[in-house]
Amino acid sequence: MRIVVLTGAGISAESGLTTFRDSGGLWEGHDPMQVATPEAYADDPGLVQRFYDARRAALSQVEPNAAHHALVRLEDALGDDLLVVTQNVDDLHEQAGSRRVHHIHGRLRSAWCTRCDERHDWHGPLADGPACPACGASGLRPDVVWFGEIPYGMDLVEQALDECDLFVSIGTSGVVYPAAAFVHWARGATLELNLEPSAGATDFAESRRGPATRLVPEWVDELLA
Prior knowledge:
225 residues; SIR2/SIRT2 'Small Domain'; three-stranded antiparallel sheet
């Protein structure tokens, strides 16, 4: 069985990371348009860099939860027939042990040099303008996809959805495109595991409600039984 799993902020929230927007429409106290667009970066790069530096530092304070570990068990059983596509920029899937993870919105622990176009694993701050390890220029920015930019590797995702037997959406609101359209692109059966109904909940063949730390292990156990 070929399975594509999409994960969103809900799975990381149960490890203690804040979700993309709180009830007031803010992202960790900031309007997303002030910290998550190319225009915001051009207008105030220091603010944007400090914002992502803080989010990168926060990763060292959290750990993968039961849902992340359950997906590792599923990958151990299915191998290359499982692809985890995540909207999250954290690396909790990888910390848990997942190997086939595709970050469509980039990774916090990666820096992209706008001068030479090289990408580097990065764990420290960027606000102080460190030199690019490849070209030596001071042009590193967070390797994350901002509003108005194109998500990474969509050809790979579209092909996987076209070939999958099952598409599972975990902990995502279903309002951010193109991920919100994945349920329509998937050729196989569809399942949503979410605390609250997503914007596209009625498009799924089956939906289950509850925390990811309970729903995901239960679903994996059922599948592997």
